[in-house]
Amino acid sequence: MKIVGMAQTFNEHKAGNLRRCLDHYSRLCDEMVVLDDASTDGSVEIIREYTDHVIVNEENNWEKNFETKNKAILLDEVMRHNPDWIVSFDADEIFDKRVFQKEFFRNMLNWADAKNLNSLCFNWLHLWLSPCWYRIDKGLGQISPPRVWRNTGEMKIEITSGLHKRLWPPQMDNPARVNLNLLHYSSSSEDKLYAKIANYIRLHPEGNYLAVMDNAELAEVDYEWFEDQNRPKREQHPDLEAAKKRILERLKIEQNAESEIISV
Questions:
Q1: What is the torsional sign of CA 180, 185, 190, 193?
Q2: Residue 234 · residue 132 · CB < 8 Å
């Protein structure tokens, strides 16, 4: 069985995600193909420590609302490596510790083969304002997109403009849910959540991205989900309303500053 991983990155070294991600998936995959979307933080040099299969964009496609183009390029390259299974991972998420051993992961894929399954999804745990707490309300999706795909032959990703488009081949729809966790770090601190919301508003000002902060309910992580090097120190429950107020104030200041620059 040959397992090939694929991911796109953009300034994930600066965000603190890159080595954690590559350390993790390099143990699960036989090969990895990584597309760097014009990073400026030295990410490419770090990626080359883990794989020789690196695609480097001169311009950032995600900023131009063509994330699907990156995924299509990645999948075309991955298919040249003749995988049996493909792991499509984001640089800001890792599996919990139970999946870290390659033997366990292969056993899971053997089970999927025996069941004739084409794709797998997982519990998607969004770490929220802290690496110690995650969302349990229905405000965020709690089932991941199809992250593990069986090579069914002809596999393509449609290139379409916009955010949150289909980032997997149509054969991977209706994935089987596996009761294992994907830990998602993109909102795991107040600064990260602020930066994420500000970026979405900048690219799509018509979207209601502030609503993601409403009606949040949190549960404490199980610290056994983490390997020692990734295990966070315990923190108190975040003050959700105070964090929301600070983020809104930062966004207001930023928008006012942009207005002043434009008016000049």
A1: negative
A2: yes
Is residue 194 within 8 Å of residue 104, measured between CB atoms? no
DSSP run (H or E) holding 219: strand 218-220
Write out pLDDT tens, residues 1-21.
999 999 999 999 999 999 999
Residue-wise pLDDT tens digits, 186-203: 999 999 999 999 988 887
The whole model's pTM is what?
A: 0.91
pLDDT in tens, 202-250: 877 777 888 899 999 999 999 999 999 999 999 999 999 999 999 999 9
CA angle, 202 then 208 then 209, to 5°:
65
Which helix (DSSP H) or strand (DSSP E) does residue 86 occupy? Answer: strand 85-88
Q: CA 84 → CA 7, 39, 53, 106, distances in Å?
A: 17, 30, 18, 11
Domain ranges across the chain: 3-121+144-178
Residue 176 forms beta bridges with which residues?
120
CATH of range 3-121+144-178; options 3.20.20, 2.30.30, 3.90.550, 2.10.220: 3.90.550
